[in-house]
Structures are given as C-alpha cells and as structure tokens.
Design goal:
Blueprint: E1 8-12, H1 18-26, E2 30-34, H2 38-46, E3 50-51, H3 55-59, E4 64-67, H4 72-80, E5 94-97, H5 103-114, E6 119-122, E7 125-126, H6 129-134, E8 137-142, H7 145-158, E9 159-166, H8 171-199, H9 204-212, H10 219-230, H11 243-259, H12 265-279, H13 291-294
Parallel strand pairs: 1-2, 1-4, 2-3, 4-5, 5-6, 8-9
Antiparallel strand pairs: 7-8
Helix pairs in contact: 8-10, 8-11, 8-12, 9-10, 11-12
C-alpha cells in the first residue's frame, strides 16, 4: 500500500458531511470526489479535490474509500448496485464506513468485500459538518489492527477522538447503536421538557438556560434546545441533522434490542415520537422539530 505522501482516498457523496470531510482529507492526502450534484462537485474542485463523473471512476486505484450513506440499502447500492464500486476496488484497499446502518448489514457487507480481498473499517462517526472540516469528529472503530493501520491516514485526519471498540466489523455499529439510543431519547425528552415549560407559562428561553446549567442539563438539551424554539419560526431551524435520521437510528436500536431479547421501553417510546414526526411531514426538517409532535404550536410567545 501507499505511503502517506501518495495515499489516495475517494470520498463518495459531497453533501453536508462528505464535502467537509473531503476538504479536511485534502489538506494532507490526495482526494478523489464524486457527487451527482454538479454544484457540490464544483465546490469540491475549488477545495483541491479531484472531481470524477462516476463513483467507479473516482474509486479505481485508490487506497481507501470513505462512505457516508443514509442506510443499509444505500450502502448496498453504492457497493454492489448497477454502478457499484466493489468490483473496481484494488485488492488490499479499504472501505471506511462512517454511517450508522446497523450491525447485521455491516457484518454481511464485510463478508462480501472480503471475498473480493477488500477490507471494511466499521467507523461510525459523531459530530456535524463544522467538526468534520476541523478533523474534530468522534469515531468509534471496529476492525482488526492490520486493517485499521491501512485506514490510519484517513482516521487520524478526521477524528480528534478515535476509540477502538473491537476488532470486527459490526463492533463500531454495536457501540453506535447504544450511543444513538441515548441521543434519541435525550432529544425527545428535551422536546417534552421545553413544551411543558411553555405550557406552564414559563419563559422558555430562560428555562432552557437554567436547565442547561444544572443537573438536568445534557449536550442534546443545550444543542437542540435553541433549535427547538426556532422550529416554530416560519423557516424553522437550519437543518443540521434530519428528523428521519432518528427514525432510522431508533429503528436500529429497537431491532437490536429485540434480537438481544432486551426490553427498551424508553427507546421504543422515543422511536414512536420520531415516527409520528415523519408521519406529520417533518422527515426533512431538523430533528429539533420533534418538539412540534408534542406541541404543534407554542402557547406563550
């Protein structure tokens, strides 16, 4: 495999997360980029990323591919679909999966890639676009030491916190499943708390600030709380993380719990709140809009 100076990585999908990750990687590595949106590809080109007109063209001959996909179906399509990349990847190359798609999907995909002598690093991430561009992501990794070494040039540039969870693809997904249980529940609980504060006639902004400073505070309350108040404006909060991502992630949580014969009543209740939000047309809204499931309008402005 290549040395750091001539290591080439392909980033497929140059959206809200893909472009800042590609830009960060291009600061030290050679980066190929592909996106179906010509405007995003133009932005990538301006950032020093080599543009390609198809995913297979972008990945041919590279050392690593970074994938940030929405779900398992999209992962299968990118790798094994009609314009899939699996058959053009060099033997010994590595696919770095940064998405949360579920344990079973990753185990299956890793086995399919292994038959082609291509490795998979299971590295789901946490952190938004700004942190991605700064190399400040949290990444949890499931892969053997030998395979992790192949991906080190990418992982070390993207992550400020790199936690090795296990030696197998699927271990990263298992940890992220637990992580998303807490995140999904915390966001739903924050929505209920702020809706209740409004219903009781409290100043919601002041309540949010005070809660965040005390024992009831959480990252999700402090981060999503202000955006929950923006959810009631005409334009809503800026979409930093879509509500339907939690529909997917909480589905992964409850599926894993059932497979483990573990009751997760709180996570299951939170899943229903996100499903209701999707049914009410909020799928493409920021996940902070989940507050409108419990309180469609503010009582006290």
């Amino acid at each position: 495999m290549s040395t750091q100076t001539d290591y080439t990585v392909a980033v497929l999908g140059l959206g809200a997360m893909g472009l800042p990750m590609a830009t960060r990687l291009a600061s030290e590595l050679r980066v190929n980029g592909f996106d179906i949106d010509e405007a995003r590809l133009a932005l990538a080109t301006a950032a020093g990323i080599a543009p390609f007109d198809s995913a297979p063209a972008a990945t041919r001959g590279v050392d690593a591919v970074v994938l940030a996909v929405r779900d398992g179906a999209q992962l299968h399509e990118v790798l094994f679909g009609g314009a899939g990349i699996a058959d053009v990847l060099d033997e010994g190359s590595v696919v770095i999966l940064t998405s949360t798609v579920g344990i079973d999907v990753v185990v299956e995909v890793a086995e399919q890639l292994a038959r082609r002598r291509v490795h998979l690093v299971d590295a789901p991430m946490s952190g938004g676009p700004v942190r991605a561009g700064q190399g400040d992501l949290l990444m949890v990794v499931g892969a053997s030491p030998e395979v992790r070494k192949l991906a080190d040039p990418v992982l070390n540039l993207l992550a400020s916190t790199l936690s090795i969870i296990g030696d197998r693809p699927g271990d990263g997904q298992a940890f992220k499943t637990v992580n998303q249980l807490l995140c999904g529940v915390h966001v739903a609980a924050a929505a209920e708390a702020l809706a209740l504060a409004d219903a009781l006639g409290l100043d919601v902004e002041s309540t949010l600030n005070t809660l965040s400073a005390g024992a009831a505070g959480s990252f999700m309350l402090a981060n999503r709380g202000p955006r929950m108040l923006e959810a009631y404006t005409d334009d809503g909060a800026e979409v930093l993380s879509r509500l339907d991502i939690f529909v997917k992630d909480m589905g992964i949580v409850t599926k894993a719990a059932r497979a483990s014969r573990l009751a997760t009543p709180i996570a299951s209740a939170a899943e229903q709140v996100y499903l209701l939000g999707a049914a009410q047309g909020l799928s493409a809204s920021d996940d902070s809009a989940v507050i409108k499931v419990v309180a469609p309008t503010r009582i006290h402005d």
